[in-house]
Design a protein that fits this description.
The chain is of the alpha/beta class. 30% of the residues lie in helices and 15% in strands. Belongs to the D-isomer specific 2-hydroxyacid dehydrogenase family.
């Protein structure tokens, strides 16, 4: 009888292959498959459209461990119909994304972006550089999961008052106060900084739109490191013209790579980064902490220990 397969859709260090095999000795571990082997895949680490049809057609797949926190590009409806378990990499990128956000904020408030432009022109421009203080600012985290909680923990030490938005307004560690997402438009007028860290779902699609932007303070900052489609790009484009808020930083977009013809490139008060906020040092070690914990539990009980996605909700 053919042993079931754990299909690794990206390479991992030998030390982790050994740990996987020690936990699941009854499984084969494969990083590449012949056409006949897809029918034996029970666990897929990562997901690629290249193997979508073969893996789902075999009806042997029981569990997919996603490599990232975002899973909106995966076939959730098909997973649900086939009772396939799904877990994500939520938490792996929390520190990296928090540091990215803090870097963006300090760059803005300390005038570093203008200094870079001045340097390119060999312009001393001391009087032209605007500066402010991050300490004392009211910051709203829209999405109080792993990343939001890490951001709160990191940035509170700089004297920032951190508030949160989540689905129901339930309390979350490290926040002065939390509110339901249905109250977003009521809360943003009192915030100096609004950070989007939302998953991509039907409920969050274009949630950051002109209705929200026009209610923000004129000197407020908007940063999105969640999913690109949570921002209504066309309505964001009107924000600088209407002076709804002072500055935006986007690391994710509705279309990636961002097309060269996109007018977003031309906005002076917008910082564009190419989906790099989640780039994480020692990713393999952090990922394996999640996967190995789940694998140990799955082998014993056919259930997952951490980061299981509710397929109907999309996160």
């Amino acid at each position: 009888m053919t042993k079931p397969i754990i299909f690794l859709q990206r390479p991992f260090r030998e030390e982790f292959i050994d740990k996987i095999q020690a936990i699941a000795p009854a499984y084969q571990i494969k990083t590449a498959l012949t056409p006949d082997e897809f029918s034996a895949v029970e666990i897929s680490v990562g997901w690629s459209k290249e193997f979508h049809e073969q893996l789902l057609a075999a009806n042997q797949l029981k569990w997919v461990q996603a490599l990232s926190a975002g899973i909106d590009s995966l076939p959730l409806a098909e997973f649900s119909a086939k009772n396939i378990l799904l877990s994500n990499g939520s938490g792996i990128h929390a520190l990296s994304i928090s540091e990215h956000i803090i870097g963006v904020l300090l760059g803005y408030y300390r005038g570093l972006y203008q200094a870079v432009k001045n340097q390119e022109q060999k312009n001393w421009g001391h009087d032209a550089i605007q500066y402010d203080q991050l300490a004392g600012k009211n910051l709203l985290v829209v999405g109080t999961g792993h990343i939001g909680q890490q951001l709160s923990k990191s940035i509170r030490s700089l004297g920032v008052n951190v508030y949160g938005i989540n689905t129901t307004g339930h309390p979350a560690e490290g926040f002065v106060e939390t509110y339901s997402i249905k109250n977003l438009a009521k809360i943003v007028p009192g915030m100096d900084i609004v950070i989007g860290i939302l998953p991509g779902t039907d409920e969050t699609y274009h949630i950051f739109n002109s209705d929200i932007f026009e209610k923000m303070k004129k000197d407020a900052l908007f940063i999105n490191v969640g999913r690109g489609d949570t921002v209504h790009t066309k309505e964001l484009l009107t924000a600088p013209k209407e002076k709804y808020f002072a500055f935006a930083a986007l690391d994710v977009f509705e279309e990636e790579p961002l097309p060269k013809e996109s007018p977003l490139w031309t906005l002076d008060n917008l910082l564009i980064t190419p989906h790099i906020s989640g780039m994480t040092v020692d990713f393999q070690n952090k990922f394996m902490q999640i996967f190995l914990a789940n694998l140990k539990n799955y082998v014993a009980t056919n259930e997952l220990a951490v980061n299981q996605v509710e397929l109907q909700r999309g996160y």
